[in-house]
Amino acid sequence: MFPVLFSLCLVGITHIALADKVCPRPPEVPLATVKVNKEAYRPGEDIVYQCNPGYIPHSGSWRYVCPSSGIWPTVTFKCMPRKCSYPGPLNNGEIHVTDLNYLSVIIFSCNTGFVLKGPTSSQCQVDGSWSANLPECQPVICPPPLVSEFGALSYRKIESGDTFVFQETIRFSCLLPLALFGSETATCQADGSWTAIPECKSVQCPPPEPIEHGFINFALRSTFHYQDIVTYGCYLPYTMDEGSESRCEKTGTWSNKPTCKAPCNIPVEKATVLYNGQKIKVQKLKSIQHTETIWFFCKSKTEKCSYKTPTQCIDGQLSVPDCYEEHNWFMSWFKKDPADMSPCGN
């Protein structure tokens, strides 16, 4: 009887000893699960950790074996969120990003003057893709400006295309004789409206004023409108050295009033001058026109030679160079004319 009891006790003790070496449920790992999760594991059984959907292994071993001691080794397995790639850039817009991890949400917005067409946000999914594609930022469209089809004010597109989009500019013009008041251009704005549109107004100028020593060609009308032109002329020997036209401006005034310039008498009686590349006696030349130039011959004070000095006629005024010495009739018999001397520097 005793051997039987002893054997039963020995079996029970062995069973209790073996039961103490069973591994318990494995420790939990954040963002991960065990493939086969039991209450107890016999020595030699293994467990495999796997990351939850949307997460990927980051560090540590993913497989562990229950040891004979019944104590799991330190679990170092860790998971991290899967990342989505940056979806940009978004042309004419911005992508507002906190991070690119699984379940993160990005927000789309457009720059001023552009309208969002498509989703306003997108979320990073389990497989690392985004829930929505990039939207488009399309420019704001302005309606055609309110201009009558057959009115005096018209416009033309500076850029090609069928629509008027944000920041596009158009140029206006008026049918003559109306004048344009305001900006010649208008620009499509961010709110879909245009900058200020100009106006076409009638403008009249008073009859052009006559000029001294001159005349107006065919100025027979009593009224003159914007952009009308009159031309002036001068009586001989007066000349005009600037534009002969005058234009009626949008201010109701004429653009300019030409003047007739007087010729110049040469204030010496006996001299040889250079005029239009030729030597000529002033007795024959007598006068030159406004803006014309003649050259006087001056004698060198140190050498037997001469040099040329120019002087220009300005509205009836012509000065003789200081270096020129005029000789009377008697002295001219004894002194050589500087014009006949050799040029200095030869």
Total beta-strand segments: 30
Low-confidence stretches: 1-18
- Return Rg in Å: 52 Å
Strand content: 25-35%
Overview of the structural elements:
It is built from 2 helices and 30 strands. It has 346 residues and is mainly beta. A hairpin with a 2-residue loop joins strand 26 (272-275) and strand 27 (278-281). The longest helix is centred in the first third of the chain and has 19 residues, at 2-20. The termini are far apart. The model is unreliable at 1-18 (pLDDT under 50).
Set out the fold topology.
Layout: H1 2-20, E1 23-24, E2 32-34, E3 40-41, E4 46-51, E5 55-59, E6 63-65, E7 78-81, E8 93-96, E9 105-110, E10 114-117, E11 121-123, E12 136-139, E13 141-142, E14 153-157, E15 164-165, E16 169-174, E17 178-181, E18 185-187, E19 199-202, E20 204-205, E21 214-216, E22 224-225, E23 229-234, E24 245-247, E25 264-265, E26 272-275, E27 278-281, H2 282-285, E28 287-288, E29 293-299, E30 306-312
Antiparallel strand pairs: 1-3, 2-4, 4-6, 5-7, 8-9, 9-11, 10-12, 13-15, 14-16, 16-18, 17-19, 20-22, 21-23, 23-24, 25-28, 26-27, 26-29, 29-30
